[in-house]
Design brief:
Elements: H1 5-8, H2 25-44, H3 51-63, E1 66-67, H4 68-75, H5 79-91, E2 95-99, E3 107-111, H6 113-134, H7 139-156
Antiparallel strand pairs: 1-3, 2-3
Length: about 160
């Protein structure tokens, strides 16, 4: 079977105006993200966490001591929204703010022992959650998908 000319030329839609799989990519990614977050939230709620709170803990495990702007960028959130999340987490003793060593006007966010303990407690559940998400793929396919998503993120960074 021949491909429509528009698909061969790299156009986003087929000749008949019917969306191709590539056209539907943002829609599919949004649906997938929503479903993933709903599933994960069911496991987080009993521990007093939300998706943004889990993201903050996860980011701080890799980049402890980063600034709110960096946290917001890594979490894909607006800085004002993430600042409120950080306020709540600080109130709950999961993270703390400290003046930056090189610039006392700047504030860094650090995970507390209580936040670290909660993160460690949920890490096995997080691993099972990810395993459920990629069980339809072999290791090579899952790795390729992760690389493709990172490539997309890198390509649109700063836009």
């Amino acid at each position: 079977m021949n491909k429509p000319v528009a698909e061969e030329s790299g156009s986003a839609q087929s000749l008949m105006g019917i969306p191709t799989a590539v056209d539907l990519l943002p829609y599919l990614m949004n649906r997938l993200t929503s479903k993933i977050n709903r599933m994960w939230l069911l496991e987080l709620r009993p521990h007093g966490l939300t998706i943004p709170r889990w993201q903050v803990l996860s980011i701080l495990k890799v980049m402890d001591g980063c600034r709110i702007g960096e946290l917001a960028e890594m979490a894909g959130s607006e800085q004002a929204v993430l600042s409120r999340v950080v306020d709540q987490m600080q109130r709950d003793g999961l993270i703390e703010r400290r003046p930056a060593a090189e610039d006392s006007r700047a504030t860094e966010v650090w995970i507390t022992p209580s936040g670290d303990s909660l993160y460690q407690q949920l890490l096995p559940q997080a691993a099972r959650h990810v395993d459920r998400l990629v069980r339809a793929f072999d290791d090579g396919e899952a790795s390729q998908m992760a690389q493709s998503l990172e490539k997309m993120l890198d390509d649109i960074a700063g836009q």
